[in-house]
Design goal:
- Two copies of one chain form a homodimer.
- Chain A has 393 residues and is of the alpha/beta class.
- The first copy, chain A, folds into two domains: 44-131 and 300-392, Isopropylmalate Dehydrogenase, CATH 3.40.718.10; 147-294, Isopropylmalate Dehydrogenase (3-Layer(aba) Sandwich).
- Helix content of chain A is 37%, strand content 19%.
- Chain A contains twelve helices and twelve strands.
- Chain A has helices at 2-13, 59-73, 93-102, 121-128, 184-200, 218-231, 243-252, 282-293, 324-329, 335-347, 351-367, 381-391, and strands spanning 48-53, 77-81, 104-107, 133-139, 152-158, 162-172, 175-181, 205-210, 237-242, 259-262, 301-305, 310-314.
- In chain A, the strands form two sheets. The first copy, chain A, has a ten-stranded mixed sheet, sandwiched between helices. The first copy, chain A, has a two-stranded antiparallel ribbon with strand order 6-7.
- The longest helix of chain A has 17 residues, at 184-200.
- Chains A and B meet through helix 1, strand 4, helix 5, strand 11 and helix 10 of A and helix 1, strand 4, helix 6, strand 13 and helix 11 of B.
- Chain B: Belongs to the isocitrate and isopropylmalate dehydrogenases family.
- Chain B: Residues 45-403 form the Isopropylmalate dehydrogenase-like domain.
- Chain B: It comes from Eragrostis curvula.
- Chain B: Residues 1-31 are annotated as: Disordered.
- Chain B: InterPro entries: IsoPropMal-DH-like_dom.
Chain lengths: 393, 408
């Protein structure tokens, strides 16, 4: 018994790949084609207009990749391109008008100059269009080895207030005050959006990330709004976690999280002086940590949603437009923006095209032959794009 | 080692996970990167018509499953029976308001007098496309494999135009049995040809059925079929016809299809005569993808296709028009079963459950639609709870409970 049981035990304990009739690679079985019984309304196939903002740095590279893939799929979208650069004083009015008309926009990052004077155009865009929810979906891609498995986190982050309210002033020389504002109105609507997202996407748990032990009033207000909304969704578990513990748990046991949402930190409303001038925003941090453990900012899709409009961009670190070396060598990772454009297709109600795109991208990553530098490979953006187009069916 | 490994082995073997469903990524939950608009989760009102015969049984099953899923839909129920003279205006108004309806079948009395209420509903709401999705269900053995056919059928004209009349004795004798082709133009519908079939009966009376094909209706059903193929990543559209005999009528239909096909260069288009089509369906069904047909052929082809992959008890379908959609059992929607089945409560709810999944996807609740479809497919794959038409002995309620238990 002893001699025969050891190999048997070993076989049972080692993970066995699911048998896949559709492809030879064991990992591709997880991304086989799905039959959607989708009965469209007549006229659903009419092409939709989408605003496209290439942006700075790697932006034009990766948006070019999306454009090529959309053409190859014959997707019913066509792009209205607008040139916007991070050093412009404001987002041009015609761009805003175009997004208001088309309701959907896809953009590369806009580089924000460090230092005083010019405010970030990314943030400006979100405020103008009131895109109050920012969403990043961080999940393990099959075939991409990471230190953590079974990661599937969606970070929903309030986009319009908190530390990004942009209210800074110098009281006296040498003293700067930065106001971080939390309102019940914004907290409530982001809580509603997060619970509705969990409900519509069959998610079981929502975690509020806060620092209310320290910022009792502000984050306390935020938590109050979350608890109220949580009561209306009895089927969804709700819990709260302090942001520092959250970051630690993310890097040690990320599978306990499902949907997380949070607000940005602030100085309290009483106007006390604060010597913090910091970009330490819970949402920004948590999204980046989650993206990092699941494969990096180069692969995670995301977007910003408001009542009427939606802007899709690279999930985490949307303001990070890469350094000149990456741009010169054309080795930017297009996967994040491709998956975001798949989200966009699903938002526009073209589920079949979204499925095709996601399947093709996941197959390319699973195969492992065409990967850019951040995933450990040596391919260029164009090679990855061609591989995705080749895998479209 | 031997003493300790036996219980360990036993535990590992007994707790082995169930075999994954093929085509579902190992049965794992699909991560849908779906970013809803705020407010997308508000519940939608849907008209529900239980109908006759097995209708109330299967619509009750749908209702239970929707509640178990906490789906964002609520039903407005209306009682309609096949022997009513017309569909009550309250029902039609409700469907116009809600835009979506789910119904069981309405029994149509055979013989003259009362026209089918199913048909009436489709005409009132101008639901010009009827869609049936016939595909092999994993775990359900059939004589054919790899079948995935969608039959799109024109719903409002053709042989079902309902224009029948009886000629008095004496007039018949002068006509004999021959085809008459009359050419005339009617401005509002641009009819180009009408062909009369004269049917003789031994009592020397005759009944004439006017079979109308218009360019307007043929064009819109062809447009719908190609758009469906485009949006669902289908590669081929086949037009089913009998234009070698009915040269003008089906010729007009084919012309419309060819015109629309030229606008979709990425989709293959071919034509097949209906008799050959029926034979090919039962010999080599894997060659078909999307089929577009006029009314009568559509009924036959849809039922044949449904039959080869498991029967009308499992195939989902619906009727769609410009503004409204009515979901019902895919094929043979008018077949409400016999009293035996109703008494024993052994009707198959799978068809209507899958149709309600189509409805959820039509209402843009993809996650709920996925859950429902996955649960239903698991139940069928397991094979423990199957109704009589699939070879089992379960009742409707047992199948419904199994689906609810399999929801995740």
């Amino acid at each position: 018994m002893a001699r025969r049981s050891a190999p048997l035990l070993r076989r049972l304990l080692s993970p066995s790949p699911a048998p896949s009739p559709t492809s030879s690679s064991p990992l591709a079985g997880a991304v086989s084609r799905r039959t959607v019984t989708y009965m469209p309304r007549p006229g659903d196939g009419a092409p939709r207009r989408v605003t496209l903002i290439p942006g700075d740095g790697i932006g034009p590279l990766v948006t070019g990749a999306v454009r090529q893939v959309m053409e190859a799929m014959h997707a019913p979208v066509y792009f209205e391109t607008y040139e916007v650069h991070g050093d412009m004083p404001t987002v041009p009015a015609e761009v805003l008008e175009s997004i208001r008309r088309n309701k959907v926009c896809l953009k590369g990052g806009l580089a924000t100059p460090v230092g005083g004077g010019v405010s970030s155009l990314n943030v400006q865009l979100r405020k103008e269009l009131d895109l109050y929810a920012s969403l990043v979906n961080c999940f393990n891609l099959p075939g991409l080895p990471t230190r953590h498995d079974n990661v599937d986190i969606v970070v929903i982050r309030e986009n319009t207030e908190g530390e990004y309210s942009g209210l800074e002033h110098e009281v006296v020389p040498g003293v700067v005050e930065s106001l971080k504002v939390i309102t019940k109105f914004c907290s409530e609507r982001i809580a509603k959006y997060a619970f509705e997202y969990a409900y519509l996407n069959n998610r079981k748990k929502v975690t509020a990330v806060h620092k209310a032990n320290i910022m009792k009033l502000a984050d306390g207000l935020f938590l109050e709004s979350c608890r109220e909304v949580a009561k209306k969704y009895p089927g969804i578990q709700y819990n709260e976690i302090i942001v520092d513990n959250c970051c630690m748990q993310l890097v040690s046991k990320p599978e306990q999280f499902d949907v997380m949402y949070n607000v940005l930190c602030l100085a309290n409303l009483c106007g006390n002086q604060s010597t913090m001038v910091t970009p330490n925003l819970y949402g920004n941090l948590v999204a980046n940590v989650a993206a990092g453990i699941a494969g990096g900012a180069g692969v995670m899709p995301g977007g910003n949603a408001g009542q009427d409009h939606a802007v899709f961009e690279q999930g985490a670190s949307a303001g990070n437009v890469g350094n000149e070396k990456v741009v010169a060598q054309k080795k930017a990772n297009p996967v994040a923006l491709l998956l975001s454009s798949a989200m966009m297709l699903r938002h526009l109600q073209f589920p079949s095209f979204a499925d095709r795109l996601e399947t093709a991208v996941k197959r390319v990553i699973a195969e492992g032959k065409y990967r850019t530098k951040d995933l450990g490979g040596t391919s260029t953006t164009q090679e990855v794009t061609d591989a995705v187009i080749a895998k479209l069916e």
